[in-house]
Amino acid sequence: EDQVTQSPEALRLQEGESSSLNCSYTVSGLRGLFWYRQDPGKGPEFLFTLYSAGEEKEKERLKATLTKKESFLHITAPKPEDSATYLCAGRNAGGTSYGKLTFGQGTILTVHP
Amino acid sequence: SAVISQKPSRDICQRGTSLTIQCQVDSQVTMMFWYRQQPGQSLTLIATANQGSEATYESGFVIDKFPISRPNLTFSTLTVSNMSPEDSSIYLCSVAVSGVNEKLFFGSGTQLSVL
Question: How far apart are CA A36 and CA B74, in angstroms?
Answer without folding.
Answer: 23
